[in-house]
Amino acid sequence: VQLAAQDAALLDRRERVLGAPYRLFYQRPVHFVRGEGVFLYDADGNDYLDAYNNVPVVGHSNPVVRARVSEQLGILNTHTRYLTDGVVSYAERLIDRFGGAVEQAVFVCSGSEAVDLALRMARHVTRRRGIIATSHAYHGTTDAAAAISPSLGPNNEVPADIALVAAPDLGASDPQTEEREFAARVDHAIADLRARGVEPAALIIDSIMSSDGLHGTVPVLGAAAQVIRRHGGLYIADEVQPGFGRTGDWWGFERHELAPDLVVIGKPMGNGVPIAAVLGRASVFDSFGGDVRYFNTFGGNPVSIAAADAVLDEIDDRGLRDNAATVGADLRAALSSLAAEDDGISSVRGAGLFLALELQDDGVPNASRATAVVNHMRDARVLISASGPAENVLKIRPPLVFGSEHLPRLADALRAALAASPGGDPVSGSPVTS
Ligand code: PMP
To answer: What protein family does this chain belong to (predicted)?
Structure first.
């Protein structure tokens, strides 16, 4: 694997100071110097079509976000213990997008912090400890969030107050059966917790089950939400991946026809400026906030709020939620026609502009082919990744400014990469997910 001399030197310096926990994408890491819209650029000015990054939801280096953030930086930036207008107006505007499902918001700086706070709230409100999550989930980096993120790796020990359930397997049977079977697994997990003397506080699910291999084409989570409620626990919708219009709906849980007790949002919320939130009903917030004082130094500061407000403006003004639905449908059709030509593609799934191709070889997950395809596409300057328990699910999740004019380049690169790696090259590196 050949890198330019200066990139090899940078890689060397990076490994020395950033150390082992950091991973880079690709066998031949790529060095970007700027981004614009759906493109990232290297030092030679080559454009890379970004079909992977969901944080720059309104486009890389979005000029509206940039203007609002720089203006606010020159006016006021402080914490939420003074009266300021921006955070209140934004909270009202955000809560409005939930159609009555939530009434209040707490702002934090990352999805992990939001997950951590949602777990704390659920445990405090129910006076219980048990949390149920899916068996290859990713929910974040804090101690509590990492404990329900088995996709981090086998050394991530599962504490006694956590129970894991396999995500719905949409390839195996019909959605109604999957919904029922998934709810039964949650019921079983509650019994398991109780057998250990732990009462269930919450069920938390990424509404599109991204790290579990991307599900979410059809509703499958409603019955499980009813099960946790029947047993006195809360349902937490992790919307960090599907939120803000990606699926064609504002929130991923909408397709599952359930009303969550708590919602966690993040990633695209500030288009890269750190901001995330927990939302829920006033009764839940009252029960937590009546006992506990919560303060987050950077959470919801005026600069982060300016970014988040500009993101909502851009999604609205440019019709990006509809764009996710319409361009997503065209992309899905293109992926389905690739699947019709290729026996190794066992399923096309997802919603809106979050789609996946699952690769199998005679019914066996084909991770080496997924890795080869991702690396071939990198060489063709189109960015995607792979995920799922077996790392065999190609993950396509572009900024929402991805238009139909960008589709042919993505589809052509994917077709060529699939053709160039029919059985999968035996390769050492794997594209890092999450
Ligand atoms: N939940 C989900 C579903 C996520 O995908 C992520 C990030 N990949 C997180 C939570 C954590 O968010 P952050 O990286 O902002 O802490």
So the answer is: Belongs to the class-III pyridoxal-phosphate-dependent aminotransferase family.
